Amino acid sequence: MRKILLLSFVLWAALALAGCPAPQPASPDQGAQAPAQEAMAGEPIKIGAIFDLTGPTSDVGTPYAEGIQGYVQWLNEKGGVSGRPIELLFQDYGYKVDVAEQLYSQFVNEGIVAFQGWGTGDTEALRGRIAADEIPFMSASYSAVLGNPEEAPYNFLVGTTYSDQMLIALRWALEDWAAKGNAGAPKVAVLHHDSPFGRSPVPDGEAFAQANGMAFTAIAMPRGATDLTPELTQAREFGANYIVIQNVSSPAALLLKDRQRLGMDDVQVICLNWCADEILVNLAEGAAEGVVGTLPFAPPTEDVPGLQAPRDFLAAQGQDLNEIGLHYGQGWWTMAVMVEGGIQRTLEAGMELTGPNIKASLEGLQGFDTGGVTAPISYSEEDHRGNRSLRIFQVQDGQWKAITDYIDAE
Predict the structure, then answer these.
(1) Residues with Cβ < 8 Å from 84, sequence gap 6 or more?
(2) Which of 207, 219, 327, 356 is the Cys-Cys partner for 64 at CB 3.0 to 4.6 Å?
(3) Domain range spanning residue 143?
């Protein structure tokens, strides 16, 4: 069922001014958000979205979706954008590319001006249509091709690309190897999801490794595996000193447990962002201690100003950001960059709210401050990567703790 966030009190206000008793709001449809506290007479701004709430990445997709929805409700309760409410048209697509394409077409036909996507496969499949329809598009995929305007002119990234995460992880591994008194360069095995998402940073990682004298191998992690002993055995026979995981938390936690069982604790594990979260720590049951992660977004245990608004918003509803987790803030700030960096700047400039105008506003965005949740976000006509920097974190006493300042992939 299509779910709609829509906020309008025009009828209520008209009846009240006429001296008529205002009708009580009807019970919202399934998935609808609570009405805002202030009337907004402006025309709603429609934004489409697809979420993975039931598919294979729903463990991280659900809090991410809740963050996007939470930001929209929070903003509408504050009066929207220049007095106009955000109307969020969204639906669960179960991580199915064909469903994503159908929903995208449906929402475009309903007049959306921007879109929030999710996975790498569907985002890359849609990028040609996005460009033809001139719909500014952000998603939770950080595949490097999506940050190249020549390849994807209407895609914009908020998180650091998987390739840049990989380069930062390998650079850190080189420095860590030398700091431990080892000569030469370490051997690295990348264990990745067997999909476009999983393979996305492998070529850039291999090129960096070859340029820096690092032995490198890539090993696919079978979908639905219940035992990753064969893959870990392959990494051990290769002689890996470091394992980089490009996968989500559930299979990564399984890998950590199997690594511990096989006595491979001397191999340092580095998680790229989709397994560097509290879900991994909980599922690994102690086996995540000492794991390192590349985190483009601050976890809720970090006391940064940019997490205060989502923290307060959730607290007012009896919820705790620390319990919901890192991906809520990730979704919140992805929507915030689209709205505040693109839509709001377009309206403030007196321009019509069209895809090309929103794109131009985003391309003029420089040093957008997320309050420490990410490195500052900047775009240009030549580069749609929001930033190339992140901090390295490590699991210490069951929590992700920052062990570096921001590291730039360049």
Answers:
(1) 40, 42, 43, 44, 45, 347
(2) 327
(3) 3-160+304-379
Band (410; pLDDT cuts 50, 70, 90): confident
Q: What is the pTM of this model?
A: 0.88
Looking at residue 266, what is its pLDDT?
96
Q: Which residue has the higher pLDDT, 276 or 33?
A: 276
In 246-340, alpha helices (H): 249-261, 278-284, 308-315, 321-324, 326-336
280, with CB counted inside 10 A (0-12, 13-18, 19+), is: buried
228 CB burial (10 A radius; 0-12, 13-18, 19+): buried
Q: What is the three-state SS of 200-254?
A: CCHHHHHHHHHHCCCEEEEEEECCCCCCCHHHHHHHHHHCCCEEEEECCHHHHHH
CB 394 within 8 A of CB 169: no
- Rounded CA-CA distance 125/133 in Å is 14
Q: Kindly state whether residues 243 and 112 are assigned to the same domain.
A: no
Q: In the block, which residue shows the tokens 């929070």? A: 74
Please indicate, yes or no, whether residues 123 and 189 belong to a single structural domain of this protein: no
* Per-residue model confidence (pLDDT) at position 41: 62
Question: Do residues 216 and 191 touch, judged by C-beta distance below 8 A?
Answer: no
Instruction: Single out the residue of 116, 404, 159 nearest to residue 273, CA to CA.
Output: 159
1 has a pLDDT exceeding 60: no
